[in-house]
Design brief:
- This protein is α/β, with parallel strands linked by helices and 296 residues long.
- The protein contains eleven helices and eleven strands.
- The strands form three sheets. Strands 3, 4, 5, 6, 9, 10 and 11 form a seven-stranded mixed sheet that branches. The chain has a two-stranded antiparallel ribbon with strand order 1-2.
- The two termini are 16 Å apart.
- Residues 1-58 form the HTH lysR-type domain.
């Protein structure tokens, strides 16, 4: 099939007729009619019911329109990104994240699309991420939740369960699962207050009348990881952030489904910024499963 044929079909379908499609594309009506006719002949299908002056889609036409909507929407996004490239050159995107892991793919794609844009990344807990955005010290943030505040534009990046993790030499390392009650009897190594992972873990325990035994409070995810690796206690983390550390073993929590919904956010009042809008567009594409991209 030819691109011009799909474009002609799409515009006839969305405009509601051959004359309107011709006007939208700046072509003659015979040219549009010829392109649609050739598409139908090439694949031995009928895409439109032509009854006097009314044009309606056939069933296969409706199916094809679902595809061309995605096709031309993606084309429009690509054009917008490329046309912004020169405008954004020389600027710097400031990212603050509770974990840079969830935005690495988006950063790589953004860098490839806008090589002239600088990028800085700061790491902090939920409270620090939001404060830097409110203080205009960052452009976009990454949080372990979808914020409730209407102050922010949000994009869901991933949703992963919270798991426990221990040193490979720990007695729990041989377990396939552990219950929340069992975890609460273990010496726990948790992040500082303000960590969303810690908040969700403690909230779930409190809801069940359990009291976690916090042995060590450490600032930052890496500090927790290093302490747990020595065998001192048990940590909790989003499964997506566990990584590949041969010193550690992740253990699913069997009797609850605590999840971390990693979200990309920005202040709503700044969402139309060319720099921020371009990054959201790239991140949205990067967060889609491969199957969705192929279908589009």
């Amino acid at each position: 099939m030819r691109y011009v044929q799909l474009r002609a079909f799409h515009h006839v379908a969305v405009c509601g007729g051959f004359s309107k499609a011709a006007g939208a594309l700046g072509l003659s009506q015979p040219a549009i009619s010829d392109q649609v006719r050739r598409l139908e002949e090439d694949y031995d299908v009928i895409l439109f019911n032509r009854q006097r002056r009314q044009v309606t889609l056939t069933e296969i036409g409706r199916q094809l329109l679902e595809v061309t909507r995605r096709l031309f929407a993606t084309e429009g996004q690509a054009f917008e990104i490329l046309s912004q490239s020169q405008t954004l050159r020389g600027s710097t995107l400031r990212v603050v994240a509770d974990s840079a892991f969830h935005v690495l793919h988006a950063l790589a794609r953004f860098r490839a699309a806008f090589p002239g844009v600088g990028i800085t990344v700061h790491v902090g807990n939920t409270e620090q991420v939001m404060n830097r955005l409110y203080d205009f010290q960052a452009d976009v943030g990454v949080l372990g939740e979808m914020p409730d505040s209407q102050d922010f534009k949000t994009l869901l990046l991933s949703s992963e369960p919270i798991v426990a993790f221990v040193s490979r030499d720990d007695a729990l390392a041989a377990r396939s699962t552990v219950t929340l009650a069992e975890l609460c009897t273990q010496p726990l190594v948790l992040r500082e207050k303000g960590s969303k992972t810690r908040y969700k873990f403690e909230a779930e325990a409190a809801a069940r009348g359990l009291k976690p035994q916090i042995a060590i409070e450490a600032e930052g995810r890496e500090a927790v990881r290093e302490i747990v690796a020595t065998g001192i206690g048990v940590g909790v983390v989003s499964a997506a952030e566990f990584g590949q550390d041969p010193r550690l073993v992740a253990i699913p929590i069997a009797d609850c489904d605590m999840r971390m919904d990693e979200a990309l956010i920005c202040l709503r009042e700044r969402a139309q910024s060319r720099l921020i809008s371009a990054f959201f567009s790239v991140a949205d594409t990067a967060s889609q499963p491969a199957g969705d991209l192929a279908a589009g």
